[in-house]
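Each field is set out as follows.
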Amino acid sequence: MEWWQILLIYLVVINVAGFLLMGIDKLRAKKQVWRVPEKTLFLIAVIGGSIGTNIGMYVFRHKTKHWYFVIGMPLILIVQIALVVWLVFFR
């Protein structure tokens, strides 16, 4: 298996995980039970799941009233896109 195939599989898995964690946390918030820590949601985004967490945030309408999620999650995605562009075109 090529390195890019492994990377692609990783990104799909981590983004699905980010999406699902947003949904799980929303359900747990409604039931008022133990929640997924916010730092876990940010960690998933930072390690490559920013697309999934951003989509999950709006699909589940979760954390959309917290400024640090509304600004932080898209900012993480923008930084990741900029890093990829830099690596591909300017390295």
Observations:
- The CA atoms of residues 24 and 69 lie 16 Å apart.
- DSSP finds three helices and no strands in the chain.
- The chain has a mean pLDDT of 96.
- Helices lie at 3-31, 38-59, 67-89.
